[in-house]
């Protein structure tokens, strides 16, 4: 459904992979163009793939959605989801297609898989199903987002960087993933909502990467440093820079380097009249994340709290700019009674700027800091995990039977859940 960039490339390439494909559009020009063995728009190599696929008889095109659905096992929905005038996602084209598909269902006798390739918010597929299809047992819904880039769309399709299929019906998800099986790329089989979200995550990440490179590059240039040399050198580090590191959701960052160096960078940028909104917003973003954690702890039905971990990460005794210290400061300010245990923090052993930072923020830390997990558990109602305990510590915490809130888990358990797309 849809012979735009995603739909036409998908149709022609899937046909080239051996599938029988009907490309459907309401735009007669696009349909005729495919029937005439031509791509309806310019995209490198697409003309050739369309021509070959039509010649082999595996690709055809039609204006007749109902007849096309009736003869298909899988419908790939590739219609547009443009911004409406307020910036919200418009599902108008999707609604029209789902409504038309629904009209074909009363006479249908075999299964139909609807795979949504359009970019949509998490929850949209379920809502489209609820609005148009109901609980028809013949229909399965799968989200199958597309990651091709215009200009290299055919190449991106044939050599994908990511193949995602998500849904609650494992068999339907596998059938959609199998469409791409001959590409030899291991698909990511995920939940319906993850598949919907991942496309936004990827596009946001790409945009942030470009803006980051441009901001660092601009500051570098204005300080008479080669932007390309800086970014090329940054890319040499595939352990900390171009890697999974720092890409897991969790707690706020802190420590003696990241906040300090971001502040210095922003200060220097302002001094050379550079406006770098992305870099300027990072500490604020981090503070908001800390605020979310503070709110979550404050809303617990408990006033006596045991906090496991005090430093900004495991295996260090460096407390400078630890977000846990800021969290505890806020909790004490709101009248919570706090006990703290950190396996690496011993008030007698820390000194210098480390100790000063702690005593400035929490002057009465001495009475709150405990010397063992067992001691931490005395007279508290709830455990706050601000670090990941080792197996032995975790076992002691669990044996206490106390409820706990984990602030460092990548599932972000402290964030309230919203089940609808919530216009
Ligand atoms: N363009 C990209 O590079 C790209 C990449 C990945 C994902 N996406 C996403 O994929 C979706 C489609 O993007 P696109 O660029 O291919 O859009 P597009 O506007 O180029 O194509 C959409 C097509 O759907 C057709 N259409 C609309 N209503 C229809 C209906 N009721 N029945 C049949 N056809 C109908 C339109 O005529 C049009 O040809 C969007 O959600 C987009 O965000 C786009």
Which short descriptors sum up this protein?
423 residues, alpha/beta, Rossmann fold, 2 domains, four-stranded parallel beta sheet, three-stranded parallel beta sheet, elongated, binds nicotinamide-adenine-dinucleotide
Q: What does this 3D model show about the protein?
A:
The structure is a single chain. The two termini are 25 Å apart. The longest helix has 31 residues, at 192-222. 44% of the residues lie in helices and 11% in strands. The model has no long low-confidence stretch (mean pLDDT 96). It has helices at residues 5-16, 28-35, 46-55, 65-70, 92-104, 124-133, 153-158, 170-178, 192-222, 227-234, 258-271, 277-298, 323-333, 352-361, 365-368, 373-376, 391-399; strands at residues 21-24, 59-62, 74-77, 112-116, 139-143, 164-166, 188-190, 304-308, 337-341, 382-385, 404-406. The protein contains 17 helices and 11 strands. With 423 residues, it is α/β, with parallel strands linked by helices. The strands form 4 sheets. It has a 4-stranded parallel sheet with strand order 9-8-10-11. Strands 3-4-5 form a 3-stranded parallel sheet, sandwiched between helices. The chain has a two-stranded parallel ribbon with strand order 1-2. α6 (124-133) links the parallel β4 and β5 (139-143). It has 2 domains: 5-195, Rossmann fold (3-Layer(aba) Sandwich); 248-423, Rossmann fold. α9 packs across α10 (227-234), α11 runs antiparallel to α12 and α12 packs across α13. Bound molecules: nicotinamide-adenine-dinucleotide (NAD). The site of nicotinamide-adenine-dinucleotide has 27 residues, from α1 and α5.
């Amino acid at each position: 459904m849809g012979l735009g960039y995603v739909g036409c490339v998908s149709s022609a390439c899937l046909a080239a992979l051996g599938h029988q494909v009907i490309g459907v559009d309401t735009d007669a020009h696009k349909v005729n163009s495919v029937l005439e063995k031509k791509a309806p728009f310019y995209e490198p190599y697409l003309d050739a793939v369309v021509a070959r696929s039509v010649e082999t008889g595996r690709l055809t095109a039609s204006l007749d959605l109902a007849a096309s659905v009736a003869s298909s096992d899988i419908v790939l929905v590739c219609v547009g989801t443009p911004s409406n005038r307020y910036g919200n996602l418009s599902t108008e084209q999707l609604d029209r297609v789902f409504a038309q598909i629904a009209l074909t269902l009363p006479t249908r006798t075999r299964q139909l898989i609807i795979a949504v390739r359009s970019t949509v918010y998490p929850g949209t597929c379920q809502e489209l199903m609820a609005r148009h299809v109901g609980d028809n047992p013949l229909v399965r819904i799968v989200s199958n987002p597309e990651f091709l880039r215009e200009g290299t769309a055919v190449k991106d399709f044939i050599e994908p960087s990511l193949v995602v299929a998500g849904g609650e019906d494992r068999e339907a998800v596998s059938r959609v993933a199998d469409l791409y099986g001959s590409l030899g790329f291991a698909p990511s089989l995920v939940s319906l909502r993850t598949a919907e979200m991942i496309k936004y995550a990827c596009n946001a990440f790409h945009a942030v990467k470009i803006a980051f490179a441009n901001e660092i590059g601009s500051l570098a240039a204005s300080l008479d440093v080669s932007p390309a040399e800086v970014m090329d050198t940054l890319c040499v580090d595939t352990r900390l820079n171009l890697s999974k590191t720092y890409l897991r959701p969790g707690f706020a960052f802190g420590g003696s380097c990241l906040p300090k160096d971001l502040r210095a960078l922003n200060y220097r940028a302002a001094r050379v009249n550079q406006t770098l909104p992305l870099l300027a917003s990072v500490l604020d973003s981090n503070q908001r994340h800390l605020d979310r954690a503070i709110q979550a702890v404050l809303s617990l039905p408990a006033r006596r709290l045991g906090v496991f971990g005090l430093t900004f990460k495991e295996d260090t005794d460096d407390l400078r700019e630890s977000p846990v210290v800021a969290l505890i400061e806020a909790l004490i300010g709101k009248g919570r009674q706090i006990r703290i245990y950190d396996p690496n923090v011993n008030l007698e052993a820390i000194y210098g700027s480390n100790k000063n930072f702690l005593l400035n923020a929490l002057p009465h830390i001495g009475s709150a800091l405990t010397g063992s997990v067992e001691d931490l558990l005395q007279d508290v109602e709830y455990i706050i995990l601000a670090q990941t305990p080792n197996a032995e510590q975790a076992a002691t915490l669990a044996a206490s039977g106390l409820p706990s809130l984990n602030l460092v888990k990548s599932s972000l358990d402290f964030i309230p859940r919203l089940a609808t797309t919530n216009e």
